Amino acid sequence: MPSAGTSLLHCDGCGQLASPQHIARRLHRLECATRYRPVHIQALLLGRISPARDSDFLYSPEARFEGEARKLLDAVQLSTEGKSGDAVLCEFQKRALMLTHLLECPLEPGLTESQVAHALQVHLPVTIARLRRSFKPKRIILIAAELSPLLDTLQHADLGCPVFPASSSPFFLEGNSGAIDFPAARQGMAGSDAA
Predict the structure, then answer these.
(1) 2 within some domain
(2) 72-119 pLDDT, tens per residue?
(3) Domain assignment present for 4
(4) DSSP class per residue in 91-133
(5) In this predicted model, what pLDDT tens digit does every residue of 25-74 receive, in sequence order?
(6) Is it the case that residue 188 has pLDDT exceeding 90?
(7) 140 - beta bridge partners?
(8) What is the CATH number of the domain that holds 189?
(9) Rounded to an integer, what distance in angstroms lies between the CA atom of residue 27 and that of residue 33?
(10) Which phi and psi (to 5°) does residue 41 adopt?
């Protein structure tokens, strides 16, 4: 928590009142993710809230690929064995994939589920604007079941691309075994654009 007298700003990545340390961490993570951003994003994978641990954050310079990062790499069948973190993330980038979260910063601990839901709902317009103006993906794939209540809003937000729900997503992370046929999934998504 920030000390008394510390001036707080609203973070553009999550909407929380943020200390200078929070803003510095946000900017560092943004810089790390931007380094591996594809020029043309074929599939933007949208999660709920950025993981708190750096080792779970896909674009972390630590490149330990634990938690969410590990599940996502397993889902797209991208092996890390014998590769540097940079090589893994460059391959992810070459597949024209980009990961982001509705809330790009971890939430402060101790929030109730209703407070978290409120934070997501309040920040949703900012996320929609970022998706539309900055990312401009060919498709958006939700990777968290908790985003399901926002699916209708996202699908009707004039994003210029289809939004795939978590329940039908080949990249859905909850309980994922990692046995995903990435080329077949990608081909299936490309076919749905033509429909």
Answers:
(1) no
(2) 998 888 999 999 999 999 999 999 999 999 999 998 888 888 888 888
(3) no
(4) HHHHTTEEEEEEESSPPPTT--HHHHHHHHHHHHHHHHHHIII
(5) 999 999 999 999 999 999 999 999 999 999 999 999 989 999 999 989 98
(6) no
(7) 44, 163
(8) 3.40.470
(9) 10
(10) -85, 115
pLDDT of residue 143: 87
What is the DSSP secondary structure assignment for residue 189, as one 8-state letter? H
Do 74 and 178 touch, CB atoms closer than 8 A?
yes
Domain count, the chain: 1
Instruction: Quickly count: other Cβ atoms within 10 Å of residue 126's Cβ.
Output: 17
- Contacts of 23 by beta carbon, 8 Å cutoff, 6+ apart: 9, 11
Rounded Cα–Cα distance for residues 2 and 17 (Å): 10
Which structural domain, as residue segments, surrounds residue 184? Answer: 9-194
Q: Which residues are bridge partners to 10 per DSSP?
A: 17
